[in-house]
Design brief:
With 336 residues, this protein is mainly alpha-helical. Helix content is 74%, strand content 1%. The protein has a two-stranded antiparallel sheet.
Length: 336
């Protein structure tokens, strides 16, 4: 009996470790970079900077979580983000007396518009035309990037009112040591959106439909779930979040870059899968995806502080994607 209990405890510990591997990795990275940088990593200025670096990927990953749980993939999020940023900044250039709070509308409205159009395209192609998700979103990736360069004339959109940067670059809670403020507006905005996305997925009927559709679409359909509608809405949500990420990035830079967010879809996929969202669909959460986002941000930030070549960052991120997929496959094999 004692041996059986000991074996059970060891098994539970091993299972717990596998399920929470991303947390263990994150803690190890934080401690490692903290010691390796002589404490610079833990400075308040760097922590604040780290939250702003996480912001765009957090938005992309929160939306992408829905699509991956549905058993799909969306590689168009970077292009959708760039397109939304260009459209938003073009509108902002037409309003010279743009107020700080007016900039919020100029940021949100174009993002919703671009996100709805691009997400509807992806959702319709996948749910109604039965196009493979990789191909449908690859088409949207190319179209979105092309439109970004067409609308911007191939150059960065400039001449934007400084108030446009209120959300992306503005801060509040000023002190004598930090007259520009400590808490970035972009961080607050992202936290609100991530919480909303987490609640929508984990606490609503639609969220349950997403999990059911991703687990087994045929069974979900027989159970009364409108699987086509669920897949369609999942892709719309993903694109809207990507578009919001794009306008936040444009607001942060106070310019519309047609080449913005190029390759960001890989960071988002890496963060989402590392956070425990299964590539085969049916499991995952927005909250856990944020741990993956934190791991990616900490790696990039820590390697920058250590003056490690940026090309090596891509090697590390690629290795993380492979590790996350292998871990996911191991967990699936264990369940079966």
């Amino acid at each position: 009996m004692a041996e059986q209990n000991t074996h059970a405890k060891r098994f539970d510990a091993k299972t717990f470790l596998m399920k929470n591997m991303v947390v263990v990795i994150l803690i190890g990275l934080v401690l490692g970079f903290g010691l390796g940088t002589g404490g610079k990593f833990f400075s308040m200025a760097n922590i604040v900077n780290l939250t702003t670096q996480m912001a765009i990927n957090a938005m992309l990953s929160a939306g992408l979580t829905y699509v991956i749980i549905l058993g799909g993939i969306d590689i168009s999020v970077g292009s959708v983000a760039a397109l939304a940023g260009v459209v938003s900044t073009l509108i902002a250039t037409k309003i010279p007396n743009l107020s700080s709070f007016g900039s919020i509308f100029i940021i949100i409205f174009p993002a919703l518009l671009v996100g709805l159009v691009c997400g509807s395209f992806n959702g319709f192609m996948i749910s109604n035309m039965n196009v493979v998700p990789m191909i449908a979103t690859l088409a949207m990736q190319t179209i979105g990037r092309g439109l970004s360069f067409i609308f911007s004339g191939g150059t960065a959109v400039s001449g934007i009112p400084k108030t446009y940067s209120f959300v992306g670059a503005g801060r509040w809670l000023t002190t004598e040591n930090q007259p520009n403020g400590w808490i970035p507006n972009i961080t607050i905005f992202v936290i609100i959106m991530v919480v909303i996305m987490h609640i929508l997925l984990s606490k609503t009927v639609f969220g349950r439909h997403v999990y059911a559709t991703g687990s087994n679409q045929q069974v979900a359909h027989l159970a009364g779930v409108n699987t086509k509608k669920t897949v369609f809405l999942g892709h719309v949500i993903c694109s809207v979040m990507a578009a919001l990420a794009g306008v936040l990035n444009a607001s942060k830079l106070c310019s519309g870059q047609p080449a913005a967010c190029d390759g960001y879809e890989m960071y988002a996929i890496a963060a989402t899968v590392l956070g425990g969202t299964s590539l085969t669909g049916g499991s995952g959460s927005v909250g856990r995806a944020m741990f993956g986002v934190a791991v990616i941000a900490v790696i990039n930030n820590g390697m920058n502080l250590l003056h490690i070549n940026s090309y090596w960052q891509k090697v590390v991120i690629g290795s993380i994607i492979l590790f996350a997929v292998i871990l996911d496959m191991a967990q699936k094999k264990k369940k079966n």
